[in-house]
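Figure 2 data, in text form.
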Amino acid sequence: MAAVRSSGPGAGKVFNFKLVLLGESAVGKSSLVMRFVKDQFDDFRESTIGAAFFTQSVPVDDNTTVKFEIWDTAGQERYKSLAPMYYRNAQCAVVVYDITQAASFEKAKNWVKELQRQADPDIVIALVGNKNDLASRRAVTTDESQAYANEAHLLFQEASAKTGANVNELFKSIAKKMPLESQKQGQKGLRNSSATNRPSVDLNNANTPPSGNCAC
């Protein structure tokens, strides 16, 4: 939600935005989030079931902070039908592919098309090529990805959840792209706040709401 609050007299403003991560399974969406939120990396992270919820703040300047409410969605095909629950009312999206897997780049393009058709018309979309620490195994060139991002009007960044390279820069670039001074966006965020706080879906127990930063 794009609601705005102040931390107190003379304090800066905090803008809240709903952000969703999309992409093929095993491209590293959850690893990117964990690097951003906790500065941690786990080589053996299990696949997300349904979705997981996180929050993290990014200072934009001395008086402005963006707080991301992050929905990390499962990439397996059987969960694809749940994705609209999470990108609905999102103000920003991170679409992730693995630079060593050309097929994941094609899937990322499909996610971008879906967002452009069905998500908020003003959604900010970032295309992210993860695992650039494996450049020797690269199957998708930087130039190819950049050209596509330019054509589709996307932010673009290559990053590595494993090393942390460009992860914070990615989310800060998204924060700077958000309409922080738009009253229209603020009002929309307030209207949609209840949708943003919808419980996560746990396919093993649909009655269990998310708790903290667990993978539900």
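Caption note: Confidence is low (pLDDT under 50) at residues 183-216.
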